[in-house]
Amino acid sequence: MQNDEISALVAQGRQAIGERRFDEARQIYRDMLAKDPSQCRAWLALSAIAQQEGKLRETVETARSAAETWRNSDSNAFLAEVCMRLLMLGEYQTVRDLILGADWNDPVVLRASPGLVQYLGLVEAHDDALRLADHAIERSAGMAPALLYARATALRHLGRMDEAADAFEQVIAANPLHAEAHWALAHHARSEPAGARVPRLRKSAAHVSADHEDAIYFQYALFKELDDADRTEEAWAALERGAALKRKRLNYAASHDDESYQQLRTLCSREFVTAPGASQARAHHTPVFIVGLPRSGTTVIERMLGNHPQVQSAGELNDFLAQLSWEADRFMGEPLRQPGLEAVQGIDFEALGRGYLERTKWRAGDARLLVDKLPNNLLHAGFIHRALPDARIICVRRNPMDSCFSTFKHLFSAQAYPFSYDLSEMAAQYRRFETLVEHWSRVLPDRWLLADYEDVMREPEGWARHIAEFCGIEYDPAMIQIESNTAPAATASSSQVREGLHVRNIGSWQRYARWVASMGM
């Protein structure tokens, strides 16, 4: 096809999609593929159409066709677009394979390298992310702040602490208004002396309008720097401003969560979650799900287990929800709401379990256990047990005030944990969490373990032995030496977990008691 003809068809297709004439748009792109099967962008458009129609499987299948078309082409064009769509759909292994299979010397790939480095990090391929970043810089792709920031983030996740701090400073030197770099540096490494970065932060923040997203990052960065300097009153003011700005950007109604949690408990009776159907056959690996509220200590348990020679930690995976969505052939949100919960009742739970194990097999390698540490899998515990009856679920619970304050003071990405930017909504979420934990503790059998963060910190060896026994492995003394765990960590605690086990964070909310006591937890 000639470029003019392609451009005309793409324009027609986009107009039809914009006017929600999906059947017409679909036919336009099908005709394009009939004339030229190498048109990767046509498959991407077909995937977008299916998504708007709520057809999950068609969305995934057409995205996979886009990936296969890209593989068979002679061009690296559309690599970033294909990877972005696959990421959204949870096709992580394909994303990694596509990027690693691309020609990294191609100018198209080099120009897209900031995003591609980020994508590799999102699929937990942090070593590869750093390799690509270094290669792109060496090949004179430019010292663009976006590429430098992606490189700094990879170093942070890999635990190369000093190098990461220097790299974040390099980003700020290239662009003093790079708000995310200021924020990441504040949470990654303390300034010397404490609070030394505050003047620089305030100077940069003054150039950003109050309603810009960057203002949120600057306020959270200021909070951390002022908090480290024990300037609590100023710190709290910055945190309040940042949280209020973030909350305005979120479409969240706590009443919807109240209803969804109630519906989830009603559906997931003991009879439902223990119903026969899932295969008990020996799997390639046994999953261990670590769940709870964010910032509650789940990463500590993950690092303890990850130090065991029979265990592979995979990070925070969306694979279970992605496979659940596939089996129901619908896009599932969190928490599941009607009609999603109704759809779940009719799925093949044995297929769900097989699909999850197949999705995660590449991550497990030769390990006996694979740790999936996505806190929100707490919402799926009943479905997990029914689909994977051999899987272990470890729920971490933290003191209510510490848990709520630790979550409130953290800035999460995009729409994650929308309840965490208002103290009353955070307290309400903790109460929902407690009720759900009580429910799972009643209805789930011996594959469920509740671990209180404070107990684990005060008696790490005893709890490490208990966790090992629960998971069916022998205790290894390395489990309590989490500072020796060199595996990548891409969670909110990625810098903190490089320290050893300690009790310093117990009761940390008390420094801000006069502001947070209103939660009444």
Explain the overall architecture.
There is one protein chain. With 521 residues, the chain is mainly α. It has a domain at 260-491: P-loop containing nucleotide triphosphate hydrolases (Rossmann fold, 3-Layer(aba) Sandwich). Helices cover 58% and strands 5% of the residues. The protein has helices spanning 3-18, 22-35, 40-52, 56-71, 79-88, 92-101, 107-122, 126-138, 145-157, 161-174, 179-188, 198-205, 213-228, 232-248, 254-267, 270-273, 298-306, 319-328, 340-344, 349-364, 381-387, 400-408, 423-443, 453-458, 460-471, 513-516, and strands at 286-292, 311-313, 369-372, 392-397, 448-452. Helix 2 runs antiparallel to helix 3. The N and C termini lie far apart (65 Å). The model has no long low-confidence stretch (mean pLDDT 93).
Give a quick set of tags describing it.
26 helices, 521 residues, mainly alpha, protein-tyrosine sulfotransferase activity, single chain
Topology, number of strands: 5
Instruction: Walk across the major sheet and give the strand order.
Output: 2-3-1-4-5
* Helix content, binned percent: 55-70%
CATH topology of one domain: Rossmann fold
Structural class: mainly alpha
Number of helices in the DSSP assignment: 26
Q: Specify the overall morphology.
A: globular
Overall pLDDT metric: 93
Distance between the termini: 65 Å
Pfam families: Sulfotransfer_3 (PF13469)
Protein name: Sulfotransferase family protein
Keywords: TPR repeat, Transferase
InterPro entries: P-loop_NTPase, TPR-like_helical_dom_sf, TPR_rpt, TPST-like
